[in-house]
């Protein structure tokens, strides 16, 4: 977008990308809660379903924020939520968050039989929807999970053996006993093959464009295409510090859009448009623009004669750009980054999980 181009005209071809970001995230959490409500009553007695905020993706360090849903005898369901007793200093829940947990219906640690150091909840299988909502709000609002794609899950039976469950929306299944990267590609040459264009899925022109794109992104992230974080719109999500980058495949015309909602809830002003125009002119590829109250960054990649290296470059540019620009623009124009502002670490009793 040049300085002379009216912002409205430059945005006409971006209507599909500029879906309401809050609705996108809300829909993902709703899908997660519904899947959990459907799954929980079907679990055999003795099953424990562990839902954990991925610390490597959420930036919570050694803090493990988790909720365990239990299937008990007699058609009852239980749940346990971690408390400050297992959280390190700097990541502990403050008084307001503890009060919010109790307001959601959790019993304080030790009150419910068998809860030990955790918050506890007990109900019937008929209350599965209510339990799923409480668990979802705990992960999202109390523990600070920005999106269900940053939640991992695994289940074990009464014999402590892994059990298949799910899928749970965009949450990611892992193997019990493994870290958050369980299921990631173990072939150290996978990334190199993708970046050089020799990965079979990336270079197979007979495969749909979406499959080839997924192969490239999975290679970059050293994971498998089926384990990518994909939301209800089919967009692949990539965490980039305090920013979120999405990869969207368009069919007509064939196009791959690598984009990021750099800043939300920002007030559009003439100064902002001028600044975005200046920054766009300095970018090697892509552009910055503002629509409604959101600043977007976008780098398109041609889908016809698709080249893996072109998408790799776009993703690398966007992940670095979005994480840098959201801080810079927020300092100049206000607004919110995708993952919000973190609380200052180091104070006893403060929780530094990220919020929307």
Report on this structure.
- The protein is α+β, with helices and mostly antiparallel strands.
- 32% of the residues lie in helices and 20% in strands.
- The chain has helices at residues 7-10, 21-39, 55-58, 95-104, 128-142, 190-195, 200-203, 209-221, 270-282, 308-333, and strands spanning 48-53, 66-72, 76-81, 119-124, 151-156, 162-163, 172-173, 236-240, 243-250, 255-263, 287-291, 294-302.
- A hairpin with a 4-residue loop joins strand 9 (243-250) and strand 10.
- Helix 2 (21-39) packs across helix 5 (128-142) and helix 8 packs across helix 10 (308-333).
- The longest helix has 26 residues, at 308-333.
- It is globular, with a radius of gyration of 22 Å.
- The model is unreliable at 1-19, 177-198 and 342-356 (pLDDT under 50).
Q: Which sheet architecture does the biggest sheet show? A: 7 strands, mixed
User: Which structural class should the secondary elements be placed in?
Assistant: alpha+beta
Q: What's the count of strands?
A: 12
**Oligomeric state of the chains in view:** single chain
The level of helicity is 25-40%
Number of helices: 10
Uncertain spans: 1-19, 177-198, 342-356
Question: Into which percentage range does the β-strand content fall?
Answer: 15-25%
Overall 3D form: globular
Q: Rounded to an integer, what's the Rg over CA atoms?
A: 22 Å
Q: Which series of helices and strands comes N to C?
A: HHEHEEHEHEEEHHHEEEHEEH
Give the distance, in angstroms, between the N- and C-terminal Cα atoms.
28 Å
Could you report the average pLDDT, rounded to the nearest whole number?
78
Domain TY-Chap N-terminal: 27-151
Domain TY-Chap central: 210-340
Protein name: YbjN domain-containing protein
């Amino acid at each position: 977008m040049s300085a002379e181009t009216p912002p409205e005209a430059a945005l006409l071809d971006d209507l599909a990308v500029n879906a309401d970001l809050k609705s996108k995230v809300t829909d993902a959490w709703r899908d997660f809660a519904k899947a959990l409500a459907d799954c929980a009553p079907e679990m055999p007695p003795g099953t424990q379903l562990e839902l954990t905020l991925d610390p490597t993706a959420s930036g919570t360090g050694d803090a493990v924020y988790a909720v365990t849903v239990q299937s008990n005898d007699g058609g009852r369901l239980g749940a346990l939520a971690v408390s400050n007793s297992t959280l390190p200093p700097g990541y502990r829940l403050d008084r307001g968050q503890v009060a919010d947990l109790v307001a959601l219906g959790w019993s304080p640690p030790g009150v419910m039989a068998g809860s030990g150091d955790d918050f506890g909840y007990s109900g019937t299988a008929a209350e599965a929807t209510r339990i799923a909502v409480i668990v979802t709000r705990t992960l999202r609002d109390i523990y600070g999970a920005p999106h269900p794609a940053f939640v991992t899950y695994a289940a074990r039976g009464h014999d402590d053996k892994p059990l298949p469950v799910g899928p749970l929306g965009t949450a990611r299944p892992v193997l019990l006993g493994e870290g958050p990267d369980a299921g990631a590609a173990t072939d150290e040459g996978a990334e190199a093959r993708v970046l050089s264009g020799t990965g079979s899925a990336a270079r197979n022109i007979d495969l749909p464009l979406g499959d080839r794109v997924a192969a490239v992104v999975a290679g970059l992230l050293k994971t498998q295409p089926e384990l990518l974080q994909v939301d209800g719109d089919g967009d692949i999500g990539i965490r980039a510090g305090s920013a979120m980058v999405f990869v969207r495949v368009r069919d007509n015309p064939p196009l791959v859009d690598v984009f990021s909602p750099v800043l939300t809830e920002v007030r559009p002003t003439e100064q902002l448009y001028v600044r975005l125009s200046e920054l766009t002119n300095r970018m090697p590829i892509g552009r910055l623009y503002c629509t409604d109250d959101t600043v977007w960054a976008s780098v398109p990649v041609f889908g016809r004669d698709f080249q893996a290296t072109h998408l790799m470059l776009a993703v690398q540019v966007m992940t670095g750009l979005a994480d840098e620009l959201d801080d810079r623009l927020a300092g100049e124009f206000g607004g919110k980054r995708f993952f919000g502002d973190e609380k200052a670490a180091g104070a006893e009793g403060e929780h530094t999980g990220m919020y929307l």
